[in-house]
Amino acid sequence: MNRLHQLIWAGLVTAVLTIVGIALFAEFRRTELPVLSQIRPFVLTNQLGQVVTPETLRGKVVVANVIFSRCPTQCHQLSRQMGRLQEKIGSETRLISLTADPLFDSPEVLKQYGQRYGTDPARWWFLTGPKAEVYRVAEKDLLFSVMDTGEANPRLEDRFIHSGTFVLLDRQGRMRAVVPGEEPDSERRILNLARQLERETNL
Fold first, then answer.
1. In the chain, which residue ranges form alpha helices assigned H by DSSP?
2. For residues 26-59, b (16+ Cβ closer than 10 Å) or e, as one string?
3. Which residue range forms the structural domain that includes residue 185?
4. Are residues 116 and 62 in the same domain?
5. pLDDT tens, 93-110?
6. Which residues is 148 bridged to in the sheet?
7. Number of domains making up the chain
8. Is-above-0.70 flag for pTM?
9. Residues 92, 81: Cα–Cα separation, whole Å
10. What is the distance between the alpha carbons of residues 123 and 57, in angstroms, rounded to a whole number?
11. Contact predicate 96/64, CB 8 Å
12. pLDDT tens digit string along 24-55?
């Protein structure tokens, strides 16, 4: 009888675990993130002077935003948020900040800017390059709003207008999520989304 009871209990446990597994898998499928856009070929440069292309990023989850080094307001908050994410993000995720002011923001300028926020260049890159290329990637592929209002505008906060959002790319360079930086729980959401994308294996 004891043997029979053991078999019954083993069968029940197996059935419960199977049901839980199916439920978790179904929940994952229901919450799978959509593909919002696909990154096209580009050539930019990071703060170390290294060339960065989509192939450089392939295999990594990416969290990206837009800043510029002379920004007197919003960019400080966005970069502080990135700095906190850097401390918590997994090794399979890279942080990327594109500059809205590439004519001024050379790799050396961005390197100095990043040092103010404790940047680890193995995890967080600042990207610059030809203005048309930077803006194309930012606007067309990452769906940021970025605008240069012209040199006649004396106020830097009004000269370069850009999104205060974060976007997440999967390991294939596909944009999968957008998180407004001003949301109270934005950093928690970004971390959770990055971990979800890290778990995906469909390279």
1. 2-30, 54-57, 74-88, 107-115, 131-136, 156-159, 186-199
2. eeeeeeeeeeeeebeebebbbbeeeebebeebee
3. 37-199
4. yes
5. 999 999 999 999 999 999
6. 160
7. 2
8. yes
9. 19
10. 11
11. yes
12. 433 444 468 999 999 999 999 999 999 999 99
